Amino acid sequence: MGMIPLGWWEFPLWLVVMGVTVWFCSREVLDLRSPFWGRSCILGLVVFAVWIGPEALIPGYREHWLFQNPITGSLGSTLDPALRDDGWVLALRTLRAVFIAPIVEELFWRAWLMRWLIDSDFRRLPLGAWSASSFCISAVLFAAEHGPYWEVGLLAGLAYNGWMVRTRSLGDCILAHGVTNAALSFYTIATGKWEFWF
Question: Which DSSP letter does residue 73 get?
Answer without folding.
Answer: B
